[in-house]
Design a protein that fits this description.
Largest sheet: 5 strands, antiparallel
Number of strands: 11
Strand content: 15-25%
CATH superfamily of the largest domain: Winged helix-like DNA-binding domain superfamily/Winged helix DNA-binding domain
Order of helices and strands: EEEHEHEEEEEHHHEEHH
Distance between the termini: 22 Å
Number of helices: 7
Radius of gyration: 20 Å
Number of domains: 2
């Protein structure tokens, strides 16, 4: 799940003759961090603004033409869960996977059980196009036509996407320890407790989705898809180092970092 930055990049019309009444200026930014916006959003563009952010929050811009951006959402590969503050040291929020709920006739099977079945939605993973395609929004005011560019630029720091960031970075932490490891072998680097009892529980499809997020951010390099090799990049090493520094001693122990 991605942080998204929106930047005012220009005005298609004469902004001096017809100034933007929200007083946007070139270079103004708004950032979505996973739970809140930091910056000013003109109410006249609020609906299309939210749509652009939602697209990139889910896919990072790696979706192909005709694909639904939500097809890359890792949440749908996750099991049911309950809130348990004791688990915050693992996922940053405090969710505990509940892999079995007999009273609901529910049993989570990785790569088989989906959190929800959405008609017509084909779930995808991996790096997609491998490119962080940007989105453009043009204000509907014909006198100014303010132009704003949206880009996914990192993994989220807050909100219900944070557990996926932590899982992604836990995966990233395993990769340099086994140079040349194949994507479909990463799961073997987690023991049963790490794999099943930290939210979200891991399966091959979820790992492939999260590795795709790392790849599109240039934190890893992939060879030959989900059975090919994966390697950490210099940008990935810097990201991993910064993440480890942000953790408490308790969190480092819980995440085995």
């Amino acid at each position: 799940m991605f942080k998204v930055r929106a930047t005012v990049i220009g005005f298609d019309e004469d902004e001096k003759r017809h100034p933007c009444h929200f007083q946007y200026k070139i270079g103004d930014t708004v950032v979505w961090d996973g739970e809140k916006f930091n910056g000013r959003i003109c109410p006249s563009i609020m609906r299309p603004f939210a749509e652009k952010v939602s697209i990139l929050y889910n896919s990072g811009g790696r979706h192909k033409e005709g694909e639904i951006p939500n097809s890359y959402t890792p949440f749908l590969h996750s099991p049911y869960s309950v809130y348990d503050p004791a688990y915050k040291k693992f996922d940053g929020v405090g969710f505990r996977p509940t892999l079995e709920r007999p009273e609901q006739n529910y049993k989570f099977i990785p790569d088989v059980t989906l959190f929800d079945n959405i008609p017509g939605l084909k779930l995808l993973g991996g790096p997609g196009t491998g490119i962080r395609k940007k989105e453009i929004l043009v204000c509907g005011d014909s006198h100014t036509h303010m132009r704003m560019e949206f880009e996914a630029f990192d993994l989220v720091d807050y909100g219900d996407g944070l557990p996926y960031t932590r899982r992604s970075l836990s995966i990233l932490n395993k990769i340099p320890k086994k140079p040349g490891i194949a994507v479909d072998k990463i799961i073997n680097e987690f023991d049963d407790a790490e794999r099943d009892n930290i939210y979200p529980s891991l399966g091959q499809n979820l790992i492939w989705t999260l590795v795709g997020e790392l790849a599109v951010l240039d934190y890893v390099k992939l060879e030959d898809g989900r059975t090919g090799k994966v390697a950490i990049t210099e940008a990935g090493k810097k990201k991993l180092t910064a993440f480890k520094k942000s953790l408490t001693a308790e969190e480092k122990k819980a995440l085995r970092m």
